[in-house]
Amino acid sequence: MKLRPLIPVLPVFLLAMWLLLNDSVSPGHLVLGAVFALLVTVAIARLRPLPAWPRRLYVAIGLIFHVLIDIVRSNLAVGRIILGASRYQPTVGFMKIPLDMRDPHGLAMLAVIITGTPGTVWAGHDAENNVLTLHVLDLKDEAAWVRTVKQRYERPLMEIFE
Amino acid sequence: MSASDVPLWAALPAAFLLVCGGLLTVIGSLGLLRLREFYARIHAPTMGSTLGAGCVLIASMLASSALAERPVIHELLITVLILITSPVTAMLLMRAAMFRSKS
Q: Does pTM surpass 0.95?
């Protein structure tokens, strides 16, 4: 196995949260926040023994950028559908997308991204066959949705988590 | 410190963002009224919790940074927490609806 840099997400996130909440980066708060973050991490490890080890954070930056663009775009699309709803009701529908990703944290991130974008909701996941059920507000072009989910979201998530 | 102390260069974009965020949230809520079935309505309020909330939070960062004359970025925390939690309720509602229409 090649050596890859691992980032402990939870303690880093907790420390950042502590510093933001206190609105200061004084040495005292840094030490207090680090102690607090480590204690919570140890406590959480007993509740959830499966830690997430994301790698290649530069991929994550690109992914966040893509997701932000998609959120803006789909907000405008959903807004247009709502304003035009008196003439034309959208054709809602479920669709199935086979996934390659198995990592539970990657799948959780995918669920948050898909549901967080207006117009699509994660409607279920078959763990045995690894098939995702997606609900789409205006289902016209199934192939386009498969492309978006698999190439835009799933591939970078697999690079990060697997 | 009051609202009139915010300098113009920050007040104008902040006001614009607030109007945008408000409009997006109103349109999203309007969707609850205008779309006819549950499976369509579940998509509408997401507008308010993503771009609507995002606009308001950026406006807040801008105005409070200009008032305090240093970067104020607590709002990032609110953004992250909203982005993590709001999809969970949408997924729960979706699963519940699917379960009910199955039985």
A: no
